[in-house]
Amino acid sequence: MATQSSAAVISATSAAGRVESFPDSKKPIGSVRFQPLRLSLSYCKSGNMSSRICAMAKPNDAETLSSSSSVDMSLSPRVQSLKPSKTMVITDLAATLVQSGVPVIRLAAGEPDFDTPKVVAEAGVNAIRQGFTRYTLNAGITELREAICRKLKEENGLSYAPDQILVSNGAKQSLLQAVLAVCSPGDEVIIPAPYWVSYTEQARLADATPVVIPTKISNNFLLDPKDLESKLTEKSRLLILCSPSNPTGSVYPKSLLEEIARIIAKHPRLLVLSDEIYEHIIYAPATHTSFASLPDMYERTLTVNGFSKAFAMTGWRLGYLAGPKHIVAACSKLQGQVSSGASSIAQKAGVAALGLGKAGGETVAEMVKAYRERRDFLVKSLGEIEGVKISEPQGAFYLFIDFSAYYGSEAEGFGLINDSSSLALYFLDKFQVAMVPGDAFGDDSCIRISYATSLDVLQAAVEKIRKALEPLRATVSV
């Protein structure tokens, strides 16, 4: 493996081609080639930098074919322009390191550490035993869509008919289809930062232009209505809001959403894509407000939700879209040519999940109680570290922590730390803690920690983070 010293970089090569992914800059010390079932770990050195996270795999099939024949194996510009998800890159890398015997503490993936509730899992098992294993209606089984309608009415104050609901293979698919259905080439998609990693790339897939609006940690990473108004043009087509937020855990209060709604009402072309996947993971006194429930916003809003987070059903792949009938029908047409309906088994489990009671009942409440305890521990423990800034999350299970006071520091045996990617790499390489650099979410001053893991693991992680930062203080002013 070729080596270079200086700033640490991991580059990822997938079936989509060679792209830089951790971070998006400068000089590589190695490469991580992500190909299904073909990733093997090796160790390398970069100058005086000992690196445990250099990995290699067999050559990319397309590259091999291109070099051995005259066949044009080039990839489309649309695919080549996409950035890989750093969350997935780091999650996969951490898992590979663990499999190789490196004891990595994994705080990268946004996945509950709880099992799917027993009654929900049993509903899926029963579906298999009863032979409910065939294709379903493209839009989802009627039983599930009716249950979603009841949920939206009782919990969110929204009245929808089953033909206004589209069940998909996860909320990510629901989001992408919504973007593709309403955006035309040249349209602008307004995205407050920090943002979930896929929003900008989904906009680009629709040949739309992402317009990112930065927010401030001092304002709890909430969108300032004045900033929104200043960015809107005749090309503005879609505003994406996520509350509770990934990656910040911020929750938009109803009063702020009402201010945003009044601005949106002035722009006839502007729609809202409201990502509400974390709505049940919320900490009192914060409360969730569905954007579509605001005055004059029902017809303008596409609401996306799902089962992965609140019900610990990430592997079941089940999400849904609710919105105006003609837009939902357009998304359904798209889904019919892409994947068809969601898993019949997962849909039966979804019915059982919605039957647990309001907001998931006691089962989900117990999970939220555990998340809150973990959040409180991290906010207190990490907040005591000199130079660290934290906005206390009101929902979800993430901390988006400002470590920028440590940028410019020099780590012995590692090198210069000058951004979120190099700092995240330092934590992983030298202290075996995997977190996601903030530049993946549009804010390079921070790093995201997922606290969807046990308190014992988090306590160990905090100690490692403390030890990692101690030697850096001598080289910077914090």
Task: Please outline what is shown here.
The protein is α/β, with parallel strands linked by helices. It is built from 14 helices and 21 strands. Helix 5 packs parallel to helix 11, helix 6 packs parallel to helix 7 and helix 13 packs across helix 14.
Q: What features would you describe in this structure?
A:
- Residues 103-465 form the Aminotransferase class I/classII large domain.
- One of its GO terms (molecular function) is glutamate-prephenate aminotransferase activity.
- Its cofactor is pyridoxal 5'-phosphate.
- The chain has 478 residues and is of the alpha/beta class.
- The protein is 35% helix and 18% strand.
- It has 14 helices and 21 strands.
- It has helices at residues 61-68, 77-80, 86-99, 118-129, 142-156, 171-182, 198-205, 225-231, 254-264, 325-338, 344-354, 361-383, 420-431, 455-469, and strands spanning 10-14, 17-22, 30-33, 39-41, 44-46, 49-51, 55-57, 105-106, 165-168, 188-193, 209-214, 236-242, 271-275, 301-306, 319-322, 398-402, 409-411, 415-417, 433-434, 436-437, 446-450.
- A 7-stranded mixed sheet has the order 9-15-14-13-12-10-11, sandwiched between helices. Strands 2-1-3 form a 3-stranded mixed sheet.
- β20 (436-437) and β21 form a beta hairpin.
- α5 runs parallel beside α11.
- Mean pLDDT is 88; it is low at 1-59.
Structural class: alpha/beta
Q: What is the CA-CA span between the terminal residues?
A: 37 Å
* Number of alpha- plus pi-helical segments: 14
Low-confidence stretches: 1-59
Shape: globular
> Numbering strands along the chain, what is their spatial order in the largest sheet?
9-15-14-13-12-10-11
Biggest sheet record: 7 strands, mixed
- Averaged pLDDT: 88
> Rg from C-alpha positions?
23 Å
Instruction: Compute the number of strand runs.
Output: 21
The proportion of strand residues reads 15-25%
In which range does the helix fraction lie? 25-40%
